[in-house]
Specification:
The structure is a single chain. With 94 residues, the chain is of the alpha+beta class. It has one domain: Aspartate Aminotransferase, domain 1 (Alpha-Beta Complex). Helix content is 26%, strand content 34%. The protein is built from three helices and six strands. β4 and β5 form a beta hairpin. The chain starts with a strand and ends with a strand.
Length: 94
């Protein structure tokens, strides 16, 4: 598992050992529901607050452009600005 943080607040988790790859992304609550309604590969956040998190299966069901758009607002959701440092932490499975 890889955890991405902005200003010490988590905004993304990546399960890189799964096939297909899965991402948990923090979202605006209204956007989270809209993405789930449009794409079958986007579901409520696995083991996360379902209101604020989506799990995305990287199986070709979500266009790359949409994935990029989903990452863009993460700084402002977490910190209120877009000039924060991003911290990456790898968590080993035991």
């Amino acid at each position: 598992m890889i955890v991405y943080k902005v200003a010490d607040k988590m905004f993304a988790l990546v399960s890189w050992l799964e096939n297909p790859l899965h991402l948990n992304l923090k979202c605006d609550p209204d956007d989270a529901i809209a993405y789930r309604d449009i794409y079958e590969s986007i579901t409520p956040g696995y083991h996360m607050n379902k209101k604020h998190w989506n799990t995305i299966s990287i199986d070709g069901g979500v266009p790359d452009e949409v994935l990029v758009m989903m990452f863009e607002p993460m700084d402002t959701i977490n910190t209120g600005n877009i000039n924060s440092d991003i911290t990456i932490k790898k968590i080993q499975k035991l």
